[in-house]
Amino acid sequence: MTVNQLMKELNLKLIAGNDGLDNEISGGYCGDLLSWVMGRAQSGDAWITIMGNLNAIAVAVLADVSCIILAENASCDDDAKARADLEGVPVLSTEEQAFPIAVKLSKLLGI
Amino acid sequence: MSESINLKYIVPGDDFTRAGEASGAVKRKLKQLGFNSDVIRKVAIAMYEGEINMVIHAGGGEADVEILPDKIHIILADQGPGIPDISLAMKEGWSTAPDNVRSLGFGAGMGLPNIKKYSDELKIETELGKGTKLFITVNVSN
Protein backbone atom coordinates (compact mmCIF):
# COMPACT_ATOMS: atom_id res chain seq x y z
CA MET A 1 0.00 0.00 0.00
CA THR A 2 1.32 3.46 -0.84
CA VAL A 3 1.26 6.47 1.45
CA ASN A 4 -1.21 8.09 -0.91
CA GLN A 5 -3.61 5.15 -0.60
CA LEU A 6 -3.27 5.15 3.18
CA MET A 7 -3.98 8.86 3.28
CA LYS A 8 -7.26 8.35 1.44
CA GLU A 9 -8.29 5.23 3.39
CA LEU A 10 -7.75 6.85 6.79
CA ASN A 11 -8.74 10.35 5.77
CA LEU A 12 -5.37 11.79 6.76
CA LYS A 13 -4.36 15.35 5.96
CA LEU A 14 -1.11 15.94 4.06
CA ILE A 15 1.05 18.50 5.88
CA ALA A 16 4.30 18.20 3.89
CA GLY A 17 6.46 15.88 1.80
CA ASN A 18 4.27 15.55 -1.27
CA ASP A 19 7.13 13.92 -3.23
CA GLY A 20 7.05 10.79 -1.06
CA LEU A 21 3.39 9.90 -1.57
CA ASP A 22 4.29 6.88 -3.68
CA ASN A 23 6.41 5.36 -0.89
CA GLU A 24 5.37 1.80 -0.08
CA ILE A 25 4.23 1.05 3.48
CA SER A 26 5.28 -2.33 4.81
CA GLY A 27 4.50 -1.96 8.53
CA GLY A 28 4.00 0.49 11.35
CA TYR A 29 5.71 1.81 14.44
CA CYS A 30 4.48 4.02 17.30
CA GLY A 31 6.79 6.12 19.48
CA ASP A 32 7.97 9.58 20.41
CA LEU A 33 11.49 9.08 21.72
CA LEU A 34 13.61 9.61 18.66
CA SER A 35 16.51 7.28 19.40
CA TRP A 36 14.12 4.58 20.47
CA VAL A 37 12.25 4.91 17.21
CA MET A 38 15.44 5.00 15.17
CA GLY A 39 16.68 1.84 16.82
CA ARG A 40 13.45 -0.12 16.45
CA ALA A 41 11.39 1.15 13.51
CA GLN A 42 11.85 -0.85 10.33
CA SER A 43 12.50 0.51 6.89
CA GLY A 44 9.13 1.12 5.19
CA ASP A 45 7.16 1.55 8.43
CA ALA A 46 4.54 4.24 8.80
CA TRP A 47 5.66 6.05 11.96
CA ILE A 48 2.87 7.24 14.24
CA THR A 49 4.03 9.94 16.67
CA ILE A 50 3.34 13.34 18.18
CA MET A 51 6.84 14.67 17.42
CA GLY A 52 6.64 17.19 14.59
CA ASN A 53 10.04 18.84 14.87
CA LEU A 54 13.04 19.02 12.59
CA ASN A 55 14.78 16.13 14.33
CA ALA A 56 11.79 13.86 13.78
CA ILE A 57 12.14 14.48 10.05
CA ALA A 58 15.87 13.66 10.26
CA VAL A 59 15.06 10.40 12.06
CA ALA A 60 12.43 9.53 9.46
CA VAL A 61 14.96 10.05 6.68
CA LEU A 62 17.76 8.12 8.35
CA ALA A 63 15.57 5.22 9.44
CA ASP A 64 13.90 5.07 6.00
CA VAL A 65 10.33 5.09 7.26
CA SER A 66 7.67 5.53 4.58
CA CYS A 67 5.85 8.43 6.27
CA ILE A 68 5.13 10.19 9.55
CA ILE A 69 1.58 10.23 10.90
CA LEU A 70 1.07 12.94 13.48
CA ALA A 71 -1.61 11.75 15.91
CA GLU A 72 -4.03 14.02 17.78
CA ASN A 73 -3.34 16.91 15.42
CA ALA A 74 0.13 17.31 16.93
CA SER A 75 1.82 20.35 15.46
CA CYS A 76 4.54 20.33 12.83
CA ASP A 77 6.72 23.43 12.85
CA ASP A 78 7.62 25.32 9.69
CA ASP A 79 11.28 24.22 9.67
CA ALA A 80 10.17 20.61 9.88
CA LYS A 81 7.69 21.07 7.02
CA ALA A 82 10.40 22.62 4.84
CA ARG A 83 12.80 19.76 5.59
CA ALA A 84 10.10 17.16 4.93
CA ASP A 85 9.39 18.79 1.56
CA LEU A 86 13.09 18.84 0.74
CA GLU A 87 13.63 15.21 1.72
CA GLY A 88 10.32 13.92 0.35
CA VAL A 89 9.11 12.55 3.68
CA PRO A 90 5.32 12.62 3.76
CA VAL A 91 3.96 14.10 7.00
CA LEU A 92 0.30 13.28 7.54
CA SER A 93 -1.98 14.47 10.29
CA THR A 94 -5.05 13.07 12.04
CA GLU A 95 -7.16 14.12 14.99
CA GLU A 96 -7.27 10.52 16.18
CA GLN A 97 -5.00 9.07 18.85
CA ALA A 98 -2.08 6.80 18.03
CA PHE A 99 -3.81 3.59 19.13
CA PRO A 100 -6.90 3.70 16.87
CA ILE A 101 -4.76 4.82 13.93
CA ALA A 102 -2.36 1.93 14.54
CA VAL A 103 -5.27 -0.53 14.69
CA LYS A 104 -6.67 0.77 11.41
CA LEU A 105 -3.25 0.66 9.76
CA SER A 106 -2.76 -2.90 10.93
CA LYS A 107 -6.12 -3.97 9.45
CA LEU A 108 -5.35 -2.27 6.15
CA LEU A 109 -1.96 -3.94 5.91
CA GLY A 110 -3.35 -7.29 7.06
CA ILE A 111 -0.69 -7.67 9.78
CA MET B 1 34.84 2.03 -6.70
CA SER B 2 38.39 0.85 -6.04
CA GLU B 3 39.90 3.59 -3.90
CA SER B 4 38.77 4.99 -0.61
CA ILE B 5 36.68 8.12 -0.32
CA ASN B 6 37.35 10.33 2.69
CA LEU B 7 34.85 12.83 4.02
CA LYS B 8 35.14 15.26 6.92
CA TYR B 9 32.40 17.17 8.71
CA ILE B 10 32.27 19.65 11.55
CA VAL B 11 29.33 18.98 13.89
CA PRO B 12 28.26 22.27 15.48
CA GLY B 13 27.53 22.20 19.21
CA ASP B 14 24.16 23.00 20.79
CA ASP B 15 22.41 23.31 17.45
CA PHE B 16 19.80 20.62 17.18
CA THR B 17 18.44 22.02 13.96
CA ARG B 18 21.69 21.12 12.20
CA ALA B 19 22.19 17.74 13.84
CA GLY B 20 21.93 15.08 11.20
CA GLU B 21 23.46 17.14 8.41
CA ALA B 22 26.66 15.08 8.35
CA SER B 23 24.93 11.70 8.55
CA GLY B 24 22.39 12.86 5.96
CA ALA B 25 25.22 13.85 3.60
CA VAL B 26 26.97 10.49 4.11
CA LYS B 27 23.71 8.68 3.48
CA ARG B 28 23.24 10.51 0.17
CA LYS B 29 26.85 9.79 -0.82
CA LEU B 30 26.50 6.06 -0.10
CA LYS B 31 23.25 5.94 -2.05
CA GLN B 32 24.94 7.64 -4.96
CA LEU B 33 27.79 5.10 -4.80
CA GLY B 34 25.28 2.25 -4.96
CA PHE B 35 25.72 0.65 -1.51
CA ASN B 36 22.83 -1.55 -0.44
CA SER B 37 20.07 -0.04 1.67
CA ASP B 38 20.84 -2.10 4.81
CA VAL B 39 24.42 -0.83 4.90
CA ILE B 40 23.27 2.74 4.28
CA ARG B 41 20.70 2.51 7.08
CA LYS B 42 23.26 1.11 9.53
CA VAL B 43 25.78 3.85 8.76
CA ALA B 44 23.13 6.59 8.86
CA ILE B 45 21.69 5.53 12.22
CA ALA B 46 25.03 4.89 13.95
CA MET B 47 26.43 8.18 12.71
CA TYR B 48 23.33 10.23 13.56
CA GLU B 49 23.31 8.94 17.11
CA GLY B 50 26.97 9.90 17.42
CA GLU B 51 26.26 13.35 16.04
CA ILE B 52 23.40 13.87 18.47
CA ASN B 53 25.57 12.74 21.38
CA MET B 54 28.22 15.28 20.41
CA VAL B 55 25.60 18.04 20.20
CA ILE B 56 23.96 17.14 23.53
CA HIS B 57 27.00 16.34 25.62
CA ALA B 58 30.15 17.72 24.06
CA GLY B 59 29.47 21.07 22.36
CA GLY B 60 29.95 19.49 18.94
CA GLY B 61 32.91 17.78 17.36
CA GLU B 62 34.27 16.33 14.15
CA ALA B 63 33.28 13.40 11.99
CA ASP B 64 35.68 11.62 9.66
CA VAL B 65 34.29 9.04 7.29
CA GLU B 66 36.28 6.64 5.15
CA ILE B 67 34.33 4.74 2.52
CA LEU B 68 35.96 1.56 1.23
CA PRO B 69 34.41 -1.07 -1.05
CA ASP B 70 34.13 -3.60 1.80
CA LYS B 71 33.68 -1.41 4.88
CA ILE B 72 32.89 2.06 6.11
CA HIS B 73 34.87 3.60 8.96
CA ILE B 74 33.49 6.52 10.95
CA ILE B 75 35.50 8.39 13.56
CA LEU B 76 33.58 10.81 15.78
CA ALA B 77 35.80 12.96 17.96
CA ASP B 78 34.81 15.58 20.51
CA GLN B 79 36.44 17.60 23.23
CA GLY B 80 33.60 17.22 25.69
CA PRO B 81 33.58 16.07 29.30
CA GLY B 82 34.22 12.39 28.52
CA ILE B 83 32.13 9.41 29.64
CA PRO B 84 32.63 8.55 33.34
CA ASP B 85 31.21 5.03 33.11
CA ILE B 86 31.07 3.44 29.67
CA SER B 87 29.22 0.32 30.83
CA LEU B 88 26.40 2.50 32.22
CA ALA B 89 26.34 4.63 29.07
CA MET B 90 25.99 1.45 26.99
CA LYS B 91 22.92 0.41 28.96
CA GLU B 92 19.62 0.94 27.15
CA GLY B 93 17.53 3.61 28.86
CA TRP B 94 20.34 5.20 30.86
CA SER B 95 20.68 8.89 30.02
CA THR B 96 22.18 12.08 31.42
CA ALA B 97 20.49 14.34 28.87
CA PRO B 98 18.92 17.49 30.38
CA ASP B 99 15.14 18.14 30.33
CA ASN B 100 15.24 20.64 27.45
CA VAL B 101 16.84 17.96 25.30
CA ARG B 102 14.29 15.35 26.37
CA SER B 103 11.44 17.64 25.33
CA LEU B 104 12.79 17.45 21.76
CA GLY B 105 12.43 13.69 21.84
CA PHE B 106 16.04 12.86 22.69
CA GLY B 107 17.48 11.44 25.89
CA ALA B 108 15.93 7.98 25.56
CA GLY B 109 19.22 6.46 26.64
CA MET B 110 19.53 4.67 23.32
CA GLY B 111 22.38 6.60 21.71
CA LEU B 112 25.37 4.37 22.35
CA PRO B 113 23.28 1.16 22.40
CA ASN B 114 21.98 2.06 18.93
CA ILE B 115 25.48 2.78 17.70
CA LYS B 116 26.60 -0.63 18.92
CA LYS B 117 23.53 -2.33 17.46
CA TYR B 118 24.00 -0.82 14.01
CA SER B 119 27.78 -1.11 13.76
CA ASP B 120 29.90 -4.21 13.23
CA GLU B 121 32.74 -2.86 15.35
CA LEU B 122 32.69 -0.12 17.97
CA LYS B 123 35.64 1.16 19.95
CA ILE B 124 35.33 4.00 22.45
CA GLU B 125 38.23 6.05 23.74
CA THR B 126 37.28 8.53 26.43
CA GLU B 127 39.09 10.64 28.95
CA LEU B 128 37.38 12.73 31.60
CA GLY B 129 37.74 16.44 30.89
CA LYS B 130 39.44 15.77 27.55
CA GLY B 131 36.88 14.22 25.24
CA THR B 132 35.62 11.11 23.54
CA LYS B 133 36.48 9.36 20.31
CA LEU B 134 34.25 6.73 18.73
CA PHE B 135 35.58 4.35 16.09
CA ILE B 136 32.67 2.82 14.22
CA THR B 137 32.95 0.25 11.45
CA VAL B 138 30.15 -1.03 9.27
CA ASN B 139 30.98 -3.99 7.03
CA VAL B 140 29.60 -4.16 3.55
CA SER B 141 28.00 -7.54 3.04
CA ASN B 142 27.46 -8.88 -0.43
* Helical residue percent band of chain B: 25-40%
Number of domains of chain A: 1
Radius of gyration of chain B: 14 Å
- Compressed to H and E, one letter per element, the order of chain B equals EHHEEHHHEE
Distance between the termini of chain B: 15 Å
Notes on the structure:
The complex is a heterodimer of chains A (111) and B (142). Chain A has 111 residues and is an alpha/beta fold. Chain A has a single domain (3-109), classed as HprK N-terminal domain-like (Udp-n-acetylmuramoylalanyl-d-glutamate--2,6- Diaminopimelate Ligase, Chain: A, domain 1, 3-Layer(aba) Sandwich). Chain A is 41% helix and 18% strand. Chain A is built from five helices and five strands; from the N terminus they run αββαβαβαβα. Chain B has 142 residues and is an alpha+beta fold. Chain B has a single domain, classed as Histidine kinase-like ATPase, C-terminal domain (Heat Shock Protein 90, 2-Layer Sandwich), CATH 3.30.565.10. Helix content of chain B is 35%, strand content 28%.
Brief sketch in words of this structure:
Chain A has helices at residues 3-9, 34-40, 54-63, 78-87, 98-109; strands spanning 13-16, 27-30, 45-49, 67-70, 91-93. Chain A is of the alpha/beta class and 111 residues long. Chain A has a 5-stranded mixed beta sheet with strand order 1-5-4-3-2.
List keywords for this structure.
heterodimer; A: 111 residues; alpha/beta; Udp-n-acetylmuramoylalanyl-d-glutamate--2,6- Diaminopimelate Ligase, Chain: A, domain 1; five-stranded mixed beta sheet; 5 helices; 5 strands; 41% helix; 18% strand; B: alpha+beta; Heat Shock Protein 90
SSE layout:
The complex is a heterodimer of chains A (111) and B (142).
Chain A lengths: L2 H7 L3 E4 L10 E4 L3 H7 L4 E5 L4 H10 L3 E4 L7 H10 L3 E3 L4 H12 L2
Parallel strand pairs in A: 2-3, 3-4, 4-5
Antiparallel strand pairs in A: 1-5
Chain B lengths: L4 E8 L8 H13 L3 H21 L2 E8 L3 E8 L7 H4 L9 H4 L8 H8 L2 E7 L3 E9 L3
Antiparallel strand pairs in B: 1-2, 2-3, 3-5, 4-5
Helix pairs in contact in B: 1-2, 2-5
